[in-house]
Design a protein that fits this description.
Blueprint (H helix, E strand, L loop, with lengths): L1 E5 L4 H17 L2 E8 L12 H13 L4 E7 L4 H11 L2 E7 L5 H7 L2 H8 L4 E4 L12 H4 L12 E2 L2 E2 L1
Parallel strand pairs: 1-2, 1-4, 2-3, 4-5
Antiparallel strand pairs: 6-7
Helix pairs in contact: 3-5
């Protein structure tokens, strides 16, 4: 059994590693840190370079946590890569950082966290977004478009808008 953590080089990504360390210590298991490098390569902000992976390894080494790091180049969705690793290592827990995106980005790009939660072979712990963006925190009220059921739909009677 292991703890699998999906890592991206952000504060939220590192928070997921910290939580993975805690979970691994409680369960007395190893941590497998997974970073997916997609088709755009290291230009993508989610791709961790060797410097980031070394920092994660140093953090886990200092705390005496058995671990392995996997930088996986793949055109598959990151969720599928994480799920495959979780099955391969018989994960007892998957950890992910939750990154805020606009409503259109979630619909177009999908959500790694959502896909993992829905298909995971084990429990999933999602760490909240702690990245500083300089913007105000995103809330459901400001992030999502107005719902049509909230009186925002034109009044249709007899097939014609009024």
């Amino acid at each position: 059994m292991t703890v699998v953590v999906g890592y991206v080089p952000t504060e939220t990504g590192f928070s997921a590693v910290v939580e993975a360390e805690r979970a691994a210590r409680c369960r007395e298991v190893a941590v497998v840190v997974v970073n997916v490098v997609g088709a755009t390569g290291y230009r993508a902000p989610t791709a961790a370079d060797q410097r980031h992976l070394d920092a994660v390894a140093e953090y886990l080494n200092k705390r005496g946590i058995r671990h392995s790091l996997r930088s996986i180049s793949s055109d598959e969705r990151p969720a599928d890569v994480l799920l495959n690793v979780a099955q391969e290592v018989d994960a007892s827990l998957i950890l992910l950082g939750l990154h805020q995106r606009s409503w259109i980005a979630r619909r177009v790009l999908g959500s790694t966290a959502q896909a993992v939660v829905l298909a995971a072979p084990c429990p999933v712990l999602v760490v909240p977004d702690v990245d500083e963006t300089g913007d105000q925190p995103t809330t459901a009220d400001t992030d999502a478009p107005p719902l049509r059921s909230m009186g925002q739909t034109p009044d249709f009677r007899g097939g014609k808008p009024r």
